[in-house]
Amino acid sequence: MVRDGEVIGEGFHAQLGGLHAERAALADARARGEDPAGATMYVTLEPCAHEGRQPPCTDALLEAGVARVVIASDDPSEKAAGRGPGMLRDGGVEVEFAAGAEAAAARLLNQSFRKHARTGLPLVTLKLAMSLDGLTATAPGDDPWISGESSRPLVHRWRSESDAIAVGIGTVLADDPLLTARLPGARQPVRVVFDSEARLPCGSQLLATLDRSPLLVVVAPDANPARLSALKDLGVELITASGESPADRVTSALTELGRRGLTSIFLEGGRVLAGAFAAADQIDESKIFIAPVLLGGTPSAPRAGGAVGGPMGEEALATAGHGGSPSPTGPARRSALESSTETVGADTLITSRFKEW
Ligand SMILES: NC(=O)c1ccc[n+]([C@@H]2O[C@H](COP(=O)([O-])OP(=O)(O)OC[C@H]3O[C@@H](n4cnc5c(N)ncnc54)[C@H](OP(=O)(O)O)[C@@H]3O)[C@@H](O)[C@H]2O)c1
To answer: Is 165's C-beta closer than 6 angstroms to any atom of ligand 1?
Structure first.
């Protein structure tokens, strides 16, 4: 919030259910002894006009007597779009929308909110690490990490910035991961395992750490009822994904995850599940590490969990997952809208965006 070229208050939406950025900025201005009346408020997203977890921001702006609101991006949700700016104008506030690069940058800041608002589905970011010989799985008994030490704090930060982390049961059976964000004070994402037949071992680390964050297991409609009730008794939440192909079941699961209010998923593999997300055209962004190592496997090398660990052949991709029925559409090429490369320790990190919401 600005008056006479001076910033008099700042705020951001720190967490779901917490104060929206506008109310946080008004509170900050008052805490600094500043009166927001007559000031200009710059916002990344149009102020809301509806009663949600928080009262409408437009009411707070009108009550405070803010003179001008500059909005960097529209709100794509049906219940909100255009209402806030309309009410502000009706209340005598000057409203201006940013355009060009500033508007695009603001939209990119809010991709998970925008995808969820427009489609009901969470934004999906695929993270994978691969060796120079194109492998994504290490040999049984070897360190499961392919990327170097320097990548780990980044991965934990990305986990903490996501509402959920997802992996396939092949990864759980091979690595017995925790899937927590291990940084001081980190927000813990919900953990999701795609496991059609409810094979998740009762002694897994995921089940031993339910006090740290919830665990959702995505199962098929015909999963063994005894396995399902065993998992339920241990405190797992079950989601039933239906559909003919692995890709259809990915979309079915994402629909349910979105319905539960999860707006972003950090997809950590393995390769079979990543292939099904790609076949469903549900990868919005990716972060791929290429590590300067040779793992020396062969494309068809069998791995724990019964899935393949090498480069994904078309046949393997089409038959991935429960039932092995081929995807009706098959894998589809999608080129990145934008891509950038950086060095992280000895690794190369390629960050790509495939869709813009
Ligand atoms: N390099 C990396 O970044 C990275 C990341 C993660 C894992 N890994 C490595 O990759 C290996 C495991 O990967 P993986 O490819 O073998 O297995 P995965 O992708 O972790 O799991 C695949 C399994 O998930 C289940 N699944 C449930 N619903 C599915 C759906 N809709 N679509 C596809 N699959 C579905 C299927 O088994 P059901 O039909 O029985 O459910 C499928 O066989 C491990 O060695 C691990 O260390 C590497």
So the answer is: no
